């Protein structure tokens, strides 16, 4: 999998958001807000090929959670990102 590069992480009014860049400007009709763990995964995995296991390992190391919880959280993040077309499989 790979995160689509046309979306950029931005800090807007204190919130972390993914915003699509058009040819000439930002498209604020396509914005996705991120929580801390989603932001962490976005930053760590941007411009990289990755698997669900890669995301789970990052979560497990960063947040000291069990492998089972990390795998579940990673799968949920990936499913959410695929649902809004932010990740290519």
Low-confidence spans: none
Helix content: 40-55%
Strand order of the largest sheet: 2-3-4
Distinct helical segment count: 3
Written as H for each helix and E for each strand, in order along the chain, the element string is EEEEHHHE
Main β sheet profile: 3 strands, antiparallel
DSSP strand content: 25-35%
Query: How many structurally independent domains?
Result: 1
Q: What general outline do the C-alpha atoms trace?
A: globular
Coarse structural class: alpha+beta
Total count of strands: 5
Query: What is the straight-line distance between the termini?
Result: 4 Å
Oligomeric state: single chain
Instruction: Give the averaged pLDDT, no decimals.
Output: 88
Gyration radius (Cα, Å) is: 13 Å
What does this structure look like?
The chain is an alpha+beta fold and 89 residues long. The chain has one domain. Helix content is 44%, strand content 28%. It is built from 3 helices and 5 strands, in the order ββββαααβ. The strands form 2 sheets. The chain has a 3-stranded antiparallel β-sheet with strand order 2-3-4, covered by helices on one side. A two-stranded antiparallel ribbon has the order 1-5. Helix 2 crosses helix 3. The longest helix has 17 residues. The radius of gyration is 13 Å and the shape is globular.
